Each structure stands twice: as C-alpha cells, then as structure tokens.
Amino acid sequence: MDLRPGVSLSTRVRFPEELPITAHVVELANGIDEHQIIIVAGETGSGKTTQLPKICFAMGRGTQARIGCTQPRRIAASSVAARVAHELDSALGDVVGYQVRFTDKIKATSSVKFMTDGILLAEIQSDPLLRAYDTLIIDEAHERSLNIDFLLGFLKRLLPRRRDLRVIISSATLEIERFATFFNNAPVIQVSGRTYPVDVLYRPPSDDEADLADLVANTVNEITELDPRGDILVFLPGEREIREAAGEIEQRALPHTVVLPLYSRLSAAEQQRVFHSGPGRRVVLATNVAETSLTIPGIVYVVDPGLARINRYDVRTGVSQLLVEDISRASADQRKGRCGRVQSGVCFRLYEEQDYVTRPAHTDPEIKRVGLAGVILRMKSLRLGDIEEFPFLDPPPQRAINEGYRTLEELGALEEGQLTQIGEQLGRLPLDPRLGRMILGGREENALREVVIIASVLGLQDPRDRPQAVQQKADEAHRKFREEGSDFVAYLKLWAFWQDARKRLSRRQLQKICHDNFLNYNRMREWEEIHDQIVRILKDLNFKPGAQPASGEQIHRALLPGLLSKIGMYNPEGRNYFGARQTRFVIHPSSSLARKPPAWVMAAELVETSQLFARTVAKLDPAWLEHAGGSLCRRSHADPHWEQKQGQVMAKEQVTLYGLPIVKDRSVAYARYNQPLCRELFLT
DNA sequence: GTTAGGGTT
Q1: Is the domain defined by A198-363 classed in CATH 3.40.50.300?
Q2: Residue A613 CA to B3 C1' — how many Å?
Q3: In angstroms, how far is B9 C1' from A380 CA?
Q4: Whose CA is nearest the C1' atom of nucleotide B5?
Q5: A396 touches A408 (CB < 8 A)
Q6: pTM (2 decimals)?
Q7: Three-state helix/strand/coil letters over A118-134
Q8: Nucleotide nearest the Cα atom of A99 (by C1')
Q9: A504-563: per-residue pLDDT in tens?
Q10: C-alpha atoms less than 13 angstroms from C-alpha of A125 in its C-beta half-sphere
Q11: Phi and psi at residue A135, in whole multiples of 5°?
Q12: CATH number for the domain running over A20-191
C-alpha cells in the first residue's frame, strides 16, 4: 500500500519491526489523513498505545496544536510517555510529555501529550473546543469507564465543529461495530496482537467440592500434577476469598510453591512481591486489579472461577451494592489473555462451557451502574446541556437520571433544573458532590480547615492497613486515632499524627513510621495531595479557613448537609438502624461506634456487601435535622384541639425526613396549616 | 464482626 498523495511520514520516526502495528503504519496514516475519525482495534501487544501517537507525529501532526493521548490510569499515562519519549530519542517533556493529577511534565515544545482521560475532560472547562489539540487518541475505549463514555459523547458533538481535528478511538476487539456506528460508520482498522495461543479448559466444580476455596485449591493441585512449573494467576472476587483460597492451597502442601495475594489495598511492598520471581512456582491470588490495572509477567496458567464483585447503585435506595456476580464473556476473555504473553498458556474456567456461552457478552458500562449526581453536576458545570440530550453510547435510564437530579436537589445544588450557587461551587471541586457539599458546609459552620481534611480522605481508600496476619496489632496501633462517637474526627487525629511526623522526619523515616503504625504511605501522600489541591481551589474561591479550631458540633453540623439521606435511627429490636427510604443498615465493625450504637447516626457511605453497612459513622443530634433538612422535611398534624390557655387551636406535629421521624408530637399552633378547621374548632 | 477496580477542575 502506498501513502495517499500529500501524506508523508518523517523518516526520523522509526517503528519497531517486531510490533504487529508496524505492518499497518501506511494504512493507518492514510486512514488518519482521509477520515476525521477512525477506530483502531487490536489486542494486547499490538503496539497501538505507543505507536499510534508516533504515526501521527511522523505525519507532521502535533506542531500547531498537540497530539493528545488519553489513558484510563495515571501509571499508564506516565510510563507510556517515558517509553515513547525514549523511542523518539528525546528527554521526557521535550517532544513527549504527560500530565496526570498532581504531575505536569509538559513543556511548550511537547508535541505529544499523554494524560488520564479525566485530565482531558477537565480541560473542556477552559478550552471548550479542545483547540489545544489537532489530534486526539482515546486509548482503552473498550473499558467504558464513565470518563471514556463522557469523552466519546463529547467528541461526537465536537467533530462537526472542529473539521481540522483528527480522532482515533483505540480499543480491544470488543464492540468495535458499535463504536463505528456511533461515529457515523467510521472506518475500522484491525491490528493483530502478538500473543501465544491459550487453551481454554472448562473445569466445573465436582459434587464433593464444598466451596470456592476448595475448588480453586484442587485446580491448582491438578495443574501441579501436570506441570510443576509455570506461574499461576487465580482470579477471586475479594480479600476474604483470597485468604480462604490461600489457606486451602497451603493445606495441600504443594512442593516449591509460593502463594502470593494481590489486591489493591495491599501496601506497595506487598504488591511488588508478585513482580519478582523467586525460587519455586508462584500462585498469585488476585482480585480484578490483575484484570486491567496490573500486568503480572510470565503467567502460564490462569484459573478463573468467573466471579467478581461489581459495583451497582440502587436507584431506589441510593445504596451502592458490591455483590459477587458472574462476569461477562468479555471479562472472561480478558482474564484468559493474562497468560500467553511470553509463551503459550492454559486458562481453566471453573464452570461449564454452556455457562460461558449464555453469559452476557459485555460488562455493563459504568454509566449504567453508578449514581448520576456527579455526572449531571459535571455536565451542567461544563455547559454541556441536558443529560437527556447528550449522545451517550449507552444512555442511562431515565429513572437513574431522575435520581441524580434528586440527589443534587438534596444537596442544594440544583433548583428547577438550574445549578444554584452551591451547585456552581460544587462543580469547581474535584470531589464527589456529597464530599464537596461537606466542604461548603465547613464554610457555613466555620469548620473549613477540619472538613477539608475529612472530605479529602473520604474519596480515597482507608489509609489504615489491617493485614490479615496481624489484625490485632494493627487495631492496637490504630487505637490512638479512635474518637468515641465519630469516625470523622478520628481522621483528624490521624491527620495530626501525619502532619507532625511530616515536619520532623525524612521520607524514609516517614515510610517507616507509616509501616510501624499500619498506615499505607502512598495513600497518606495521596490524601495530602488532594487536601492541598482543594485548599488551593478554595483560596481561588475566596474561602477562608477558620481562625479557631472548630468544635465537634461545628464539624458534624458541617458534614450533615452532604449526608442527609445517609442518616439512621436505632432500632433496638432489630439491633440495626432504620435508614432513609425504608432501608435498614448496621454499623460496619471497623467503626468505633459499632459496639455502642447511638440513637441517631450519619454515615459517609452505605454499601451493601454481606449486609448493608454504614461505614465512617458519627453520632448525630436529631435536633439538627429539621434545619438541615429544610424543604426535604415532611410535616403531618394530628389531634387538632382548642386550647383555652393559649387561646388558639393547637395540634401535634410530626416531622419526617426520608421517612424517619425526626420530630414527634410537637405541640404547634395549627392555624397556619389548616385555617378553616381552626375556625370551626374555635366556633364550637 | 469486615469492601472489586479506576479517575479529577
């Protein structure tokens, strides 16, 4: 194939011969020249991520405006940028740079900019037509995260307004036809992968295999009998299943075998263990972190029970569910592909082939599984119009949209479809709207300093580590951060501990003190970075931190407007809480309030796992609720009667908030609620 | 008596 007239490729850009994509360079360059948008489909190892930007650069793109390349994860954006910079014989930033949250390695000379998809989305705020780019490459589009679906819809609208712009959607070979159709029959260029064959064996449980751990251990045992070498990757839904399977495998006493757990909550050092091969065969027991985020080198066998915990938001109750589900075919195939990267492999699926065939083809995209308040807020804030009109590849159902509106109204961010001042301010904060609302509450209650610390950590995983083998020791170390009656204030204690250590200690010493106190150093740093970022934004918004330390009451009053539908009233019979919208929950055992449940609580989150748990909880004074609930409160009146002493008709008032009785039998003057009845009572 | 994984102005 020849290059189209007018297309040339700089000979200074070299494409590695061993990469499959190199055979398609001319085809791709022609496609990019001829079409405003193309879809590039290819499996792992094809070289798309590194070579597509180079093809665009070799075509002379990225000089007037940049070539922007998005990645779903920060680590990928920075490492791919370093790799491509190296391949172009330039220092990072000169020709190729990257930007992720907290790190900007872009210079004026950078032609190629790698970034997370969230960064590109954020740039729409200040650059609504994305004029900073002449080319955009959206990588890993098949992952269908919220950010990716948002970008796809945005780009569909942008293309007619930016005729000069070129867009490449890069994806695994999944739902390629849907992408093509979505973009008005955009051409698809298929690039082969570079992988070794993987055999699939279906190995459903036998009758005497009691549970998942047993099944997994037997399968690992069978692999050992076939082949004593070759690392094994086992996918499991969560930490507990990993622990149980590890126990079962160790009981089998397999020779020369090292069992390595792998999940995101492990410390960096514990995660690193899977990247260093030692003596003996490794059996890595991993959550979904190994499906997309981490690639473990040298896996020969994959064991896939076909299960994962999937996050789904219940639109009726506003509760997140994290329940174990059967994974889709696409996810099963992705897992299979985690072996066969350096030699041929075998994938054991621990269910019937018929089961595989009848599973859904794809995992629901995130937009169909999450609460939409944050999405709607963002769209309003970016002036992208109504969510109902936005061209999503998979439009969310109207019920979910309505629930999103309701949540924003609860927060005071939306009135009659328009963002309020609160809404505008929430739109500026890179946080979940509920967490943002806490910060605005912090200003109202003069507790800004404290609430920024709390809201920053609530969006992260808990920085406190609790390794299985040393739970008691970890709990002991964490005891000094506990605060009776408030898990939120406990975070303030932890913050004070960190800040004190931060002032005195070197980085190495900090890492040690974190380790000694069962704190995850990386997450502590992340907490601090988010905190500092929010402090900077608040300075721009002219918010001033309180001069005085805030009281517990000020802090909790500040948090409450963000958590109005996450309150609970104790139910002694059930030893649980009545929550909003007819839910019932218990306090998670990790909370300091779990043993002595107070009459009223508010929770940072309600998540359904083995039960519906409230996590990060504080005691709540119900007297605050009527004011905080405002127009969300519902009033009813009973027993209107003439009262001689007061010379007017009185009644018993009940006030409820999301169905919970926050005021009972309050005596009120009834005239303002029912004038005619009062007149009648007065006359008789 | 204990939660999968990502991401941000």
Answers
A1: yes
A2: 10
A3: 13
A4: A289
A5: no
A6: 0.94
A7: HHHHHHCCCCCCCCCEE
A8: B8
A9: 999 999 999 999 999 999 899 999 999 999 999 999 999 988 789 999 999 999 999 999
A10: 15
A11: -145, 135
A12: 3.40.50.300
